[in-house]
Structure formats: structure tokens, C-alpha cells
Amino acid sequence: MSRRVWYLLGLEDATWPERALFAVTMAAMLALAVAGFRRPTQLSTVLNGAFDWVLRYFGWWFILLGFVLLVLVLGVTWSRYGRLRIGGPDAEPEFDTFSWLSMVFTVGFGASILIWGVGEPVSIVQQPPPEPWPVGGASAKSLALAFMFVHEVFPGLAMWYLPVALAFGIIVYTRGIGEYKVSTMLAGIMPAGDHPVVLWAVDVAAIIATIGGIATTLGFSSQTMAAILGGVFGLQSAWLTYGIFAAIGAVFLVDVWLGLRSGIRNAARATMLLIGVAMAVLVVVGPTLFTFQLGLDATGVWLNNVVRLMLYTDPTAAGHWAANWTGFWWAWWAAWSIFVGSFVARVSKGRTVREMFIVLVVAPGVLSWVQHTLIGGWVLAPDYVGPVGNALSANGIPAAIARALSITPYGSVLALLFVLVIAGYIITSLDSAVFMIAAITLGDEDPNPRNRACWGLLLAAFGVMSLELSSFEAIEALSPVLALPFTLFLLVIVYASYVAAREYARDRDDVAVSPGGLLSSRSSASDTDPEAGSGTDAAPTGDD
């Protein structure tokens, strides 16, 4: 290929392994997208079959892995390593707190709060866990909302994004090891020069898993947007939906050109404001009293039984209820973990590991808890749960959302806000996903806009292709099927990040105590360096 072609693809300075990474991944995913356009029914059948197989035989694995990752991440975060500052002790935060939180929240969730906030509680009320229930004495509605809290508030938020965020933050930024690639997170336990093919394959798997995760959300979002436009506004034309996607794509391309600071940050902040307005309107027009009462009751069920609900499998019962819910959620989180975790690390330079925990788990957890309480209470209210449940059984979650909006007072106003929020989620998710995919491809934390645009066009094609698939369930299959091969890597990078943190802390300790070192005394360091502390606990020693 000529240099001009490489330039148009943003690969003019890339190495041959990087160009091969781009070509192989792009070809594989384009082939899947073309199959979706040309043979949507057959692709739906294949994806649904793969989905059932993965969750039937590996749902338990996702549940176990999530628990293990939670324990490991909490251990690292609240140990002395939690004081490590991403980028080193002198790194300064690049973004203000609101922008930082906005990017993390809008990128980390996509439109799942709106979509599954309606779909999961109503589905569980219709088809609850087999008897005996994991929580005795709870109503079906409270149990359904409690499972929603487990899956999208806690522990879901702490299990999957943080391992990658910690690994990228500590290894790539704080230790400064290697290039900006997923395989770099193996530095220290697998030197790059010893296993180049294995490391290259890791990057391929990471990009494919990332595309699977983001494609799932784009598929959910596009079908939901089409259902709202048709069910609430009576706009049934598929071309209208395609036109809206074209407008979203134009905004996305502008954001790509503007980059991280002006593009993604501003789109995330605008989306956060839209979310706030939509939830405020829902409080006014929805069944407010029932919502607050159910939310409090479900919160009690959740907090009092979080470990039981998290590890619930019920192996003696017929069917695979837990695998189809918790297993699916953890697989989705796993597929998203690569790009969200690395993106969080990218925008968290200058913050400590514990600060990153707060902005990735605590603050979004509170926000998502409020939103799921409002949305769940809305669709589970006595006047809503029947019509919404009938629409869900007949035509899936997008139709259920449209039905809920159509029977709500001033539902057209709320529907318009939902469409705008979904559009904002699509833009921010696309922005951040292509930013990180291009960064992984090129090994550059600030990839050029031409390469990002190429990946953006691929992901947009998946969003449009999902409109052609014969069932909403086919979209669900992308995350668990593409994430399964990548799950073992998550355990490896947790260990690799611990090794890097230990070595970094040991090096700083050696500098602090050596004659003529950069830190002349522990007492003076503790006043300015959050990693230093005081006395003998200032930093880990070689015995840790």
C-alpha cells in the first residue's frame, strides 16, 4: 500500500505489527458487520446460539471471576498502594472534578441505565428466580430492583473497570513502562522482547472484546431510539432513524477532530446535564410516592443481602436464571472493561488510586442508584407494570420503554429527553471507545484523528447493522461471546499491577532513605506527597 493510503488510515508512522493489528481486527469485525446486513436472520440465530452456550457453561465462571476481582481490587485500593498517584508524585490533574466525573460516568455506562433500568426489573417480576428465592420475605418488585442495584451499582461497578484502570494507571503512567497498549500491562511478568506474538495477540483480543462491548450498547441504543420514535411520536420510517444516526455521526466526527479535551469532555458534560433534567422531569410526572417507597425497600433488600445476591447460582433449580442475568451482566462489564478502564486511567492522571476508586465506584454508584430507583419505581408502579410487561413480552425491551413513555403524563417531553440522552451516550461512548482503540493500535496516548475516525466508522456500522437484526436478544450475545476469551487476562493484569506497584513503592522508599536522595526526610515528604505518609508506614518496603 502507498504511503498516502497509510496516511489516510492514520498509520503512516505505525510499525508493521501495528498495521497488522489494525488490518486483522478491522477485517474480522467488518466481516461480521457485513454478515449482519446481508444475512441478519442467520446471524441472529448464530449469535443467540453462542450466547446460550457461553452463559450455560461459563455463567458460573463470570460470577466467580467477578467475586475474585472484587476482593483483589478492594485489597489494592485500601492498602498502602491506594496512595499511589497516577503519573507519579508530581503529576497534576488534567481535568476539573465535574469534567472528570462526567467523562467516567457517561463513558462507563452508555445507555444501559435507561434501557436495562426498564428491562431488567420488569423481566424479573415476570420471571423471578426459581423457588426458593435467594432472599426470603422480599416482594418480587423489591427483589427485582435489588438485583438491578447489584448489577449496575455495587458490586458491579467495583469488579471490572478498576482492574484495568489500576493496571494502566500504575504500569503505563506511574511506572512509565512500555508503549500505550493493553499488552503493556503485562510488563514485569512477560517482557515484550520474549513473547512478541503472544503480546500482539493480547492486543487483538483486547480490541475485539472492546468492539463487542461497545457494539452491544450501540445496538441497544439504536433499537431503543427507533422504538421511541415509532411508539411515542409515530415516526416509523427506518430512514428517519438512519438520518438521526447520520446527524449523530456528524457530531461524533467533529468531536473526534476536537479531541479529548474539547470534544469528549464537552459531550460528556452536556450528557450529564441532560440526564439530570430527564430524571427531574420523571420525578414530577411519574408515580413519585410509589417510586420512593419501593426504592427504599429494595435498597434494604440489596444492602442486607449483597453477597448472597452477588453469588446466587441455585444449581439445583431447572434453567439457568442466575447465569442469564448475573453471568450476562458480568460478561458485559468484562467486554467494556478494557476501553473504559484504560480511558479512566487516561483521564485520571494526577489523581491517587483511592481518588480513582471514588470517582469510578462511589460517585457513579450514588448517581446510578438514584436513576435506577426512579426508573425502576416508574415502570414497576401498579398502573405501569402491566402494560410495560405486555410490551416487553411481545416485542422486547425497546418496545417496553416506548410503551412506558406513551402512558406517562407529558410522556412526549420525557421521550424527547430520553432520545437526547441516548444520543449523548452514543456520542460519548463512540468518542471514548475509538480514542482508546486507536491508542491501543498505535501505542500512543493521543492517537491521530484519522485513525480514530476509521474505528468510529466501523462502530457506527455496527450500530446501524443492529437495526437489521431480527431480535433484540441477538445484540445481547456480542458481549459475552467476545469477552469470554479475555477473562483470564483480567486476573493476570491484577497481579501485574500489584507487581508494578510494589516495585514502584520500593524504588521510592530506596530513594527516600538513601544518602543524598531526592527526599531528604520523611517528615517533609509527608507534608506534600500523599504517597509518603509518615513514620515507618510511608511506603512499602521490600518485605511487602
Detailed description of the structure:
The chain is mostly helical and 544 residues long. It has one domain (17-508): Amino acid/polyamine transporter I (Up-down Bundle). 75% of the residues lie in helices and 0% in strands. Helix 3 (40-77) packs across helix 13 (321-347) and helix 6 packs antiparallel against helix 14 (353-380). The model is unreliable at 511-544 (pLDDT under 50).
Offer a few descriptive terms.
544 residues; 75% helix; Amino acid/polyamine transporter I; mainly alpha; 22 helices; single chain
The CATH topology name reads Amino acid/polyamine transporter I
Radius of gyration: 23 Å
Total number of distinct structural domains:
1
Structural class of the helix and strand makeup? mainly alpha
- Give me the CATH architecture, please: Up-down Bundle
Note poorly predicted spans: 511-544
Number of alpha- plus pi-helical segments: 22
Distance between the termini: 52 Å
| Helical coverage, percent range | over 70%
- Mean pLDDT over the residues: 81
Strand content: under 5%
Order of helices and strands: HHHHHHHHHHHHHHHHHHHHHH
In short:
75% of the residues lie in helices and 0% in strands. The protein is an all-alpha fold.
Q: What is the secondary structure topology, with strand pairs?
A:
Layout: H1 3-8, H2 16-38, H3 40-77, H4 97-109, H5 112-126, H6 140-152, H7 156-159, H8 161-174, H9 196-231, H10 238-285, H11 288-304, H12 306-310, H13 321-347, H14 353-380, H15 382-395, H16 397-406, H17 411-442, H18 449-466, H19 472-476, H20 478-483, H21 487-513, H22 522-528
Helix pairs in contact: 2-3, 2-9, 2-18, 3-13, 3-21, 4-10, 4-13, 4-14, 4-17, 5-6, 5-14, 5-15, 5-16, 6-11, 6-14, 8-13, 8-14, 8-21, 9-13, 9-16, 9-17, 9-18, 10-17, 10-18, 11-14, 13-17, 15-16, 16-17, 17-18
